[in-house]
Amino acid sequence: MRANKPGLNVRENGIDISVSDGRKLILLNSFDRHNNEDTLYYVLFTFEQLGLDPESTPLHLSGEIEQDSALYNLLYNYIRNIQFTERLHLLSFSPAFSRIPSHFYSSLFSLAVCG
Fold this sequence. Notes:
alpha/beta, five-stranded mixed beta sheet
């Protein structure tokens, strides 16, 4: 199985992990998290179970996480290619949204295209 796009959406007390291969959804699961180590465990377990290389496979981040956060730094110690998701180009956003990181609330904005 060649799963090539793992994603991690961070919420206050939980995470959502998805993995897709092109347009095919391989995995989608949600977990409660009590600390950053819980998040790391679930991400690394997913990588291991799907045979993903943490040195070369990019992890796509969205949700409530900043690049200078303790969680980002912990993940980066184990996964060397981390990318933040961009806003959907199918939607138009007010200039006021430029004050909010593009990866924040991406799951909410995605609902608009589900329709």
